[in-house]
TrEMBL record:
Keywords: Hydrolase. InterPro entries: Amidohydro_3, Metal-dep_hydrolase_composite, Metal_Hydrolase, Metallo-hydrolase_Enzymes. Gene3D superfamilies: Metal-dependent hydrolases, Urease, subunit C, domain 1. Residues 51-396 form the Amidohydrolase domain. This is Amidohydrolase family protein. PANTHER family: BLL3847 PROTEIN, CYTOSINE DEAMINASE. It comes from Paraburkholderia panacisoli. GO terms for molecular function: hydrolase activity, acting on carbon-nitrogen (but not peptide) bonds, in cyclic amidines.
Length: 405
């Protein structure tokens, strides 16, 4: 697949004989990179390219709501992980290893982004380290990847201070430059436990975001009461500054460990301020309650976090696998509950990240996946190779392999 050249969009095509998740047999008409119509027996117009779906299950392109493309060792030799148990151990180990090894964020982010495409992900939010030692080097590499894949992968970049905002002088100036250089979202990290001053940290974060008119996506690993305290301070600032619908709280482990009354009060504020939550559904850490969030009107979506990097040997660019892991973490077994897990890596993730024109309806961007599976639940648990992936109206992969232009 030639990811750097821009080609004229095929004006119109028709995918025939596919099944929606409700079992209905339909055709999908595409024009100028958008879904034109979905329905049974759509007309075959002269000159329209026809693709026979052969009864495959039709799904929208998947959404990765939280990953770190710049960190990955995808496709490289195995990294032997001997890092210590603390968060700061992982941060310092990663910085040291990336500097010593010459890790190339551009090449590695491109390799993993292409793997995401082959597996059906067409929208993606990635956090990129902004570091006082590396400067904007990692950002520059991921910006190059976004440019290379701009015709097929809708990528948001978060400028992320992996060591926190206050502890390394000059970080705020680098974040300021990163937002000016093309980062879409401002990141942050544990204002109390990493920065040591949640008021000053949040004030500076929101000031930067307001200056650039950018949304915020904060890593909040802080547990229990201290996490709840930080979350409350953050929500105060969302309300005071009118940033409703512009903030994501990633991880939010505290919401999985608080007493129900305190938790529900925070969920009510999150819903009222339209602050979304992101979970990777880790197996051994408290997580926000999925069904309670849905019932209370809180957006909770999913992502991988890091994939095959110095932090973790785990992760995969297959968002159906992440949906399965979400389902397992929350004890979801019924087919309708598995559909809720799929929402976390599709429509709910698109909403949480602010990706527009998403879905399988007329006018949406033509991002779709065909897969050989009986039902959506079957697709999540079996995760067969994607028969066909289309992004922005272009065929980008067949049978799990990127197409060649």
């Amino acid at each position: 697949m030639n990811t750097t050249a821009t080609h004229p969009m095929t004006n119109a095509s028709l995918i025939t004989n596919v099944r929606r998740t409700d079992g209905a047999r339909v055709d999908v008409s595409l024009a100028d990179g958008r879904v034109a119509a979905i329905g049974p027996d759509l007309p075959r117009e002269p000159g329209v390219r026809i693709e026979d779906g052969a009864g495959a299950l039709l799904l929208p392109g998947f959404v990765e709501g939280h990953t770190h493309l710049d960190k990955t060792n995808w496709g490289m030799n195995w990294y032997c992980n001997e890092v210590g148990p603390k968060l700061t151990d992982r941060i310092e180990n990663e910085r040291r290893w990336r500097a010593q090894s010459g890790h190339d964020a551009g090449a590695q982010s491109l390799a993993l982004a292409r793997a995401f495409l082959a597996a059906g992900t067409t929208r993606l939010r990635t956090h990129v380290d902004i570091d006082t030692e590396a400067g904007l080097r990692h950002l520059e590499g991921v910006l190059a990847t976004r440019t290379a894949l701009r015709d097929v992968l809708d990528m948001q970049i978060v400028a992320f201070p992996q060591s926190g905002l206050l502890g390394r002088p000059g970080t705020d100036a680098l974040l300021d430059r990163a937002l000016g250089a093309g980062a879409d979202v401002l990141g942050a990290l544990d204002p109390a436990l990493i920065d040591g001053d949640p008021v000053a940290s949040l004030d500076l974060t929101f000031s930067l975001a307001q200056r650039h008119q950018k949304p915020i996506d904060i890593h909040l690993h802080e547990p229990g009461e201290i996490g709840a305290f930080t979350l409350g301070l953050l929500l105060d600032r969302v309300a005071a500054l009118g940033m409703q619908g512009q903030v994501v709280v990633s991880h939010a482990f505290c919401l999985g460990a608080l007493p129900e009354r305190e938790r529900d009060a925070l969920l009510a504020r999150l819903a009222d301020l339209r602050v979304a939550l992101l979970t990777t559904a880790p197996p051994s850490t408290p997580v926000p309650p999925l069904k309670t969030c849905v019932e209370r009107g809180v957006t909770l979506f999913g992502g991988n976090d890091g994939i095959r990097d110095t932090w973790t040997p785990y992760g995969s660019p297959d968002m159906l696998e992440r949906a399965m892991l979400i389902a397992m973490r929350y004890g979801l077994r019924r087919d309708d509950d598995l559909a809720l897990a799929f929402d976390c890596v599709s429509s709910t993730a698109a909403h949480g990240c602010g990706f527009t024109h998403y879905g399988l309806q007329a006018g949406a961007r033509a991002d779709l996946v065909l897969i050989e599976a009986d039902t959506l639940a079957h697709a999540i648990v079996a995760r067969p190779p994607r028969k066909l992936v289309m992004a922005n109206g272009r065929i980008v992969a067949r049978n799990g392999t990127l197409a060649q232009d």
